[in-house]
Design brief:
Layout lengths: L4 H21 L4 H23 L5 H7 L3 H20 L1 H17 L4 H19 L2 H12 L4 H21 L2 H23 L5 H22 L7 H4 L2 H15 L1
Helix pairs in contact: 1-8, 1-9, 2-8, 2-10, 3-10, 4-10, 4-12, 5-6, 6-8, 6-9, 7-8, 7-9, 10-12
């Protein structure tokens, strides 16, 4: 199996789903597109919940103690959020989305520009912060197969249809993010030679689940949480597990 094939399939399903969504979206009234977005927000919340429960993983509790996992996730979000806000990651991601919109769609007005950027940012976060992104890409790089990325590709394809029906071509542009993030993780798998220990992966998965809650809240128009600013938490979580294990 050629490393990286899973990411290529994932990109293809995102582009195909986005194209179908744009075609359908142009024929759907705004109210219907809003309902589609709400449904996707609820499903994202469900996926987030199933990921966040990894904080109760027994391997993590055995390594750091029963009371530490929640503190590790909290610390990851706080430290990662501070780092991300200082680096202005949310603003940089939005700026990149605006640049892509200008290159791919030209000057189409402020409303359409905001719609493009929102679609790009939201889809990028959803497609690239889940546990399948990290574990699947690492395993692909390690030569363990791309089955997890194939599953993710199917899920992302259907999600892209729903997203693009509401947000348009910005969802297709998120394929660039998928290539960069998953491609980097696949290369990381080639270099690491092994996956993260179960406890470290559990903390990372739980933290990623909470980031997806932030994505869901954005989709449901409850609160515009700057999820991109919190992305460094995914790096901090395994580090804090190692520190907590040393203390324990």
């Amino acid at each position: 199996m050629i490393p990286g094939i899973g990411t290529l399939v994932n990109v293809a399903t995102v582009l195909a789903g986005a194209t179908i969504g744009v075609v359908l979206g142009n024929r759907l009234p705004v109210r219907t597109r809003d309902v589609v977005t709400d449904a996707l927000g609820l499903v994202t919340l469900l996926i987030a919940g199933t990921s966040a429960v990894a904080v109760l993983d027994p391997d993590l509790a055995d390594l750091v103690g029963s009371s530490a996992p929640m503190l590790i996730v909290l610390g990851s979000l706080l430290i990662g959020g501070i780092a991300g806000s200082l680096l202005r990651l949310e603003a940089r991601v939005e700026s990149f989305g605006g640049w892509l919109q200008g290159r791919l769609a030209g000057d189409t007005g402020s409303v359409e520009r905001h719609r493009f950027i929102e679609g790009f940012v939201t889809a990028s976060l959803l497609f690239c912060t889940g546990p399948l992104t990290i574990l699947g890409s690492l395993n692909d790089g390690l030569g363990n197969g791309a089955d997890q990325l194939y599953l993710k590709a199917v899920l992302d394809g259907f999600a892209a249809i729903a997203f693009a029906a509401s947000f348009g071509w910005g969802v297709a542009a998120s394929a660039v993010t998928v290539v960069v993030i998953q491609g980097s993780l696949t290369v990381g798998g080639l270099l690491l030679g092994d996956v993260l220990p179960a406890a470290h992966l559990a903390a990372l998965t739980a933290t990623g689940g909470l980031l997806l809650v932030g994505v869901a809240l954005r989709l449901l128009r409850i609160r515009e949480i700057p999820v991109a600013d919190l992305l460094p938490a995914l790096v901090v979580a395994p580090v804090l597990v190692q520190v907590a294990a040393a203390i324990h």
